[in-house]
Design a protein that fits this description.
This protein is α/β, with parallel strands linked by helices and about 375 residues long. The chain has helices spanning about 1-10, 15-25, 70, 115-125, 145-160, 185-200, 215-230, 265-280, 295-300, 310-315, 320-335, 340-345, 350-365; strands at about 45, 50, 55, 80-85, 95-100, 105-110, 135-140, 165-170, 205-210, 235, 255-260, 285, 305-310. The protein has one domain: Aldolase class I (TIM Barrel, Alpha-Beta Barrel), CATH 3.20.20.70. Helices cover about 40% and strands about 15% of the residues. The strands form 3 sheets. An 8-stranded parallel barrel has the order 3-4-7-8-9-10-12-13, surrounded by 4 helices. Strands 5-6-11 form a 3-stranded antiparallel beta sheet. It has a two-stranded antiparallel sheet with strand order 1-2. About 55% of the residues are buried.
Amino acid sequence: MWQLLARLARQLPGEAAHKLAVETLRWQLGPRPVIDAGRLDLAVTLGGIKFPNPIGLAAGFDKNAACYHGALRLGFGHVEVGTITPLPQAGNPKPRVFRLAEDHAVINRYGFNGKGMVAAAQNLQRRQLDAGVVGVNVGANKTSKDPIADYRHAVAALAGLADYITLNISSPNTPGLRDLQTAQHLQSLLSAARAGLDDAKVTRPLFLKIAPDLHDQDLAAIVETAVTSGVCAMIATNTTIARPSGLTSPHAGEIGGLSGAPLFAPATDILAQVVTHAKGRLGVVGVGGVASGWQAYAKILVGADLVQLYTGLALNGPEFPAQILQELLALMQADGVSNLADAKGQIPHATKAIEHAIRLSQTSATQPAKA
């Protein structure tokens, strides 16, 4: 039934289908998978938080913290809501979401459309704390005269309602936002976020979400600044402004951030670079193009603690998180590892990790291990 509904939703325009999915999960409708891990352990601890499994829903889906309970019940180990800005804003003109069906990809230029931090806080105040891990992703308003101050305000308003806070400085759809990744601004941004935590009188892990379109020298500087500023984890990566050769969809030339299959390899390569520069001093979250268990496993082999996805859910429907987890368990069993810590970082070279994960997927069953 859920696959049929997913196919029907794909007949709608991209943004309409997104709104329908959010509303469906707001009412907590959807499959309720039971994942039998057997003797295998999917749990991950990062920043003092225990995640029941490594697969999370990336920011961008639940923009106003409206449906995180329903999303968690699909099997996700965590949900990251947002990006949430201090003030409400309409975002960019429509149309602003484009499916690239031939390329298994999406381009969006939403532009942080949302109801703002007050509305999000009201939704988060209804949170059932035992329901699962919820992170809050924050950003700056498009017309803000002081974007760095926006982060302080959003952190102060929302940190007490979150398990962790992510600073989104990598969306391509807010002019000037990616400039905050430069050494000139990043230290000030992180100081503002710390001040926001102080304002809220709470302690929360800070995550930093970066773009895939960074040169290695810039990436190394970002990692060092993050380490010295006490960032808990880097999220690699956001959508890309690049357009890889070979895209065949008529929408391939649309302006915005590209996600989905074409992002998998470059995002995994950036992930590997972050792991190399971090040298174990930061946690790492792998995002970008995950549409199968082997792709999630490849990011873990490179060194990811957690893996997030969004486009895969949009293209494959609500049974997708359980499918990913089942495939991941089968891959772990085929690889002879009983917990994710044994697999994490074992193949730090992105291409080799991908090749290994593909080989495992071709020889392993797609059912979870049994006790």
